[in-house]
């Protein structure tokens, strides 16, 4: 201690953040120099923009690496890539990141959509298989053509407002075909819709927010405040009443529709004594 006080030493500088690109795996780490050539060579790319210090990025990393490994073996043309935004800030700024991690899907070198699924191996792989059209999994256009099961109405941008306005009680599930939680909820939702097939004033409906009507359906989903999948909402004669926040089980869906909540009373203007 005496020696230290006579000749104090500066604390050692903090260790640099780990370089993820040095770790073994099938994730392609892009740079300013490799961006153009990589995008030309790969028609289907999921891109994760990250910072090594970001907790959410570190949590997502093992699943992202595992998903890349699975896809490289089964479908090598579907690539998972990443950019370290602490090293390549201009490139990340050009791609317009909103925070860490930001995950975007590119098709034929052009930005297609934000990835909004879970950061799990299953959802990442399912998403890439779906948008790339592998293994006979329907792509977004095919998914929009699915036939209507008994009791369930599939709505589009063209039919959404008209159907809701003439139907007393409507539960709408806004979904994406690649979403794991949507796939889990679907059989229960279908089962309950069958129970109300003979009651025209009550309907279970679904909207594929990725269907091939493109911007129109996206505008519709945005207008309804859809920020993730699935989003389930209850409407009464076209007017939004409440977002469904119960369990996604047959029993809970059934109980909700049998006794739906009432719309809130209209707000009254403040009255002031003259």
TrEMBL record:
GO molecular function per UniProt: protein disulfide isomerase activity
For this UniProt record, the keywords arranged alphabetically read as follows: Isomerase
Which portions of the sequence form the region Disordered? Answer: 1-24
| EC annotation from Swiss-Prot or TrEMBL | 5.3.4.1
Q: Where is the Thioredoxin domain?
A: 6-133, 135-262
Q: Which GO terms describe its biological process?
A: protein folding
Show the InterPro entries listed in the entry.
Answer: PDI, Thioredoxin-like_sf, Thioredoxin_CS, Thioredoxin_domain
**Does the keyword field hold Isomerase?**
yes
- Compositional bias ranges of the Pro residues kind: 10-19
- Pfam families (alphabetical): Thioredoxin
Identify the GO cellular component terms for this protein.
endoplasmic reticulum
Family under the similarity heading: Belongs to the protein disulfide isomerase family.
The molecule here is called Protein disulfide-isomerase A5
Species of the source: Desmophyllum pertusum
The gene for this chain is PDIA5_2
